[in-house]
Amino acid sequence: MNTHAPRLPLADPGVKPAATPHSGVAPAAAPPEKLRRDPRRRVLDAAIACFTRAGFHGTSMQQICTEAGMSPGALYRYFPSKESIIVAIVDEERAVRMSCLELLDSAPGFVEGLARMGQALFSGETPMVTLALGPEIYAEAARNPALKPTFDAVEDEMNAAIRVHLVAAQARGEIDPSLDPDVVMVMINAIGDGLVLRQSFEPDLSLAQMMPALAGLIGRMLAPATTPTLSPDRTS
User: Fold this and answer.
1) What are 161-174's pLDDT values in tens digits?
2) CB contact at 8 A, 128 and 90
3) Which of 39, 41, 44 is nearest to 77 (CA)?
4) How many whole angstroms separate alpha carbon 212 and alpha carbon 193?
5) Pick the CATH number of 36-80 from 3.60.15.10, 3.30.470.20, 3.40.50.720, 1.10.10.60
6) C-alpha count within 13 angstroms, C-beta hemisphere, residue 172
7) Between 128 and 185, whose confidence is greater?
8) Which is more confident, 195 or 92?
9) What would the pLDDT profile of 176-235 be if each residue is shown by its tens digit?
10) Cβ neighbours of residue 136 closer than 8 Å, sequence gap 6 or more
11) Name one GO molecular function term (predicted).
12) Which end of the chain has less neighbouring CB within 10 Å, N or C?
């Protein structure tokens, strides 16, 4: 996000001039704050709004132009395709994803850290566009070679960081040390992906409120196996 004070433009070549109605009454001007925003940011915000409403394949570049208040020529200077827009959205949220790891770093345990991350994401405390567009982005990344490398790089970076915490928790005895960390990571990702998909089906589902219970279930699955104690009258 641009933190510098914006300058008032004399003219924005990427903004379509509004047509004057036949009544002779001048149309309402676009909000100045919208015109002052960085054009690239305007495109990304417009695309996010369109993708959220109509999905990736249900959105055309022209619709994104209209939403952004830009001409096609201006938009294509920044993004040559819808795929390039998705790549930018995924890539710019890298920092947001990695900031979630601070919750894992500060948590008293691995499972509690996962619960705090889930709470922050599903409550909206840590906004993540790729969470809302999750099913759309996952589906497109699976079949689109233009998008998959960026998506994989972001996923691999996040998974590697979480795996480090998982292995450390195994060394502490918090997580069953006999479990294969790679298998555990597949399970954690599957649960997370499933929750995102479930919320897309049930928008009113409060996953944030359910997180303590979900974390309890995950904790029980990953807990070290307990050795049964023998009763006093048994020696074997």
Assistant:
1) 999 999 999 999 99
2) no
3) 39
4) 18
5) 1.10.10.60
6) 14
7) 185
8) 195
9) 999 999 999 999 999 998 998 888 888 888 988 999 999 999 999 999 987 655 555 555
10) 51, 55, 56
11) DNA-binding transcription factor activity
12) C
Portions of the chain given CATH number 1.10.357: 83-222
Q: CA nearest 48: which of 31, 64, 32? A: 64
- In the chain, where does the domain assigned CATH 1.10.10.60 lie? 36-80
123-134 residues labelled b (16+ CB within 10 A) or e (exposed): eeebebbbbbbb
- CATH of the domain spanning 83-222: 1.10.357
Residue 233 has a pLDDT of 57
